[in-house]
Specification:
Helix content is 61%, strand content 12%. By secondary structure, the chain is of the alpha+beta class. The protein has 2 domains: 4-70 and 405-441, no CATH class; 88-181 and 246-393, no CATH class. The strands form 4 sheets. It has a 4-stranded antiparallel sheet. Strands 7-8-9 form a 3-stranded antiparallel sheet, with helices on one face. A two-stranded antiparallel sheet has the order 1-2.
């Protein structure tokens, strides 16, 4: 006959721990990175069972096997992959949108200034000696120059912000790499099936998710739940064998960003680091395009103005100086009398010639083309971001469907284990009363 007191005691111990596990689930239902846990139970062999076999007839109580986390490694891997793609696409789209705002006419007035300049030139063809129109013509030139300087400043600010964000991401990445190695060390010492091990595994998965959101990684798992992490794009080991290899960051003179591991180049394919590098590349490219546009537009307007003669009969002066780039573009210090409205034969001839700046290849067309290219690139980035966000949300939902805490299920388990705990207590009570009755019969 099996020991009823032992059976009852084993039940109290097992179901008490099971209730504690359910309590942990309920308490951490809203904790990010927490994975639902269950306590695995099994039948204890009867007292007379052989060591290597278990009886199917004589029950011996219940014992705990260990804490089991509700997780699916394939769904977790898909969530990590989609997180990296999502971060890269999101940050790229954010950068494209910010660049588009920097180029927007409402923020710099370049397109409006070009239109106003040619409109004022048309007005001067009717009244070339009008001092108010001449002053307005020079004001339009200042508006264009100021707009290019404003755009250059905005792009510089965006570039600096991208660099600062990338620096922060790399610092956080390296911190997470070290934290992951610390978790590895803890897992090597943790008792299998313990709550401590489950907590460490939660920390491991959380850190892997954060790493994957910043850099495309390849993960291999050890027998104790430890992990080795490599950069997927280069194969360089970042964590493993008790060592951590940090990621380095380099910023070029034009603001472009590059990464390295152990002195060797690292080109991320996904994650925030890839998004930051893509953003910095786009900002640098757009800054160069704006500089080129500023130089061409200023040169064509200068050339057109210098072809005429001012009110005193002198050759027209350059309207713009500092044409090397957008940041230095400045309106020349001229007076209304210096506006070269005339040509060799007519007092309004040069303003008539200004009409040739309109149309294909002209300043307005050149700036409009630059804006159109940026708009198309932003629209493409938006579509990619939307697609990757949808994939990321679906992957995370599939993972969470397995691992997240369902309070209804926990409530049912709580009731089930409470009843089992009560039954175990009653088993002890029955055993005590039975023994007392036997003693009383003697």
């Amino acid at each position: 006959m099996s020991d009823m007191l032992g059976i009852g005691l084993s039940g109290l111990r097992a179901y008490s721990r099971a209730l504690a596990t359910v309590g942990d689930n309920i308490a951490n239902a809203q904790t990010p990175g927490y994975t639902r846990r269950t306590l695995a139970l099994r039948e204890t062999p009867g007292g007379s069972d052989p060591m290597l076999t278990r009886s199917h007839i004589r029950p011996g109580g219940v014992e705990t096997v260990g804490v089991v986390r509700a997780t699916d490694m394939w769904l977790a891997e898909e969530a990590r992959l989609s997180a990296g793609d999502g971060e890269r696409s999101r940050l790229t789209f954010e950068a494209m949108g910010a660049i588009e705002q920097a180029l927007a006419d409402k923020n710099n007035g370049i397109a409006k200034g070009l239109t106003a300049l040619l409109g004022t030139a048309d007005a001067l063809t009717v009244d070339p000696g009008n001092q108010a129109l001449r002053t307005q013509f020079l004001d339009n030139v200042e508006q264009i120059a100021s707009g290019f300087r404003t755009t250059a400043d905005r792009l510089d600010r965006l570039g600096n912000a991208a660099t600062a964000a990338a620096t922060d991401d790399v610092a956080r990445l390296n911190t997470d790499l070290q934290a992951l190695e610390n978790v590895n060390a803890g897992l090597r010492k943790a008792r299998p099936g313990s709550t401590n091990e489950a907590s460490l595994l939660d920390d491991r998965d959380r850190l892997l998710g954060q790493l994957a959101a910043r850099l495309d990684i390849a993960v291999s798992f050890g027998s104790r739940g430890t992990v080795a992490v490599r950069a997927a794009s280069s194969g360089d080991q970042l964590v493993g064998g008790g060592t951590v290899q940090p990621v380095g960051l380099t910023v070029a003179a034009d603001g472009r960003i590059s990464y390295s591991v152990g002195g060797q180049p690292l080109v991320p394919a996904s994650g925030a680091l890839a998004g930051r590098a893509s953003a910095a590349d786009r900002i640098a490219s757009e800054r160069s395009a704006v500089d080129t546009a500023a130089a061409i537009i200023a040169d064509r307007i200068n050339t057109a103005h210098q072809a005429g003669f001012d009110a005193g009969g002198a050759p027209g002066a350059a309207l713009f100086t500092g044409t090397a780039n957008a940041a230095t573009l400045t309106a020349a210090a001229l007076s209304p009398a210096n506006v070269a409205a005339a040509d060799a034969s007519r007092d309004n001839g040069n303003m008539i010639n200004f009409a040739q700046l309109r149309g294909t290849g002209g300043p307005q067309s050149l700036w409009a083309d630059l804006m159109a290219r940026q708009g198309q690139a932003t629209a493409s980035a938006k579509a990619q971001s939307a697609a990757s966000t949808t994939r990321r949300e679906a992957a995370e939902a599939a993972r969470d469907a397995v691992s997240e805490v369902d309070l209804d299920r926990e409530a049912a388990d709580l009731l089930r284990f409470q009843q089992a705990y009560t039954a175990a207590a009653q088993t002890i009570q029955v055993a005590r009363e039975t023994m007392q009755a036997l003693f009383n019969a003697l």
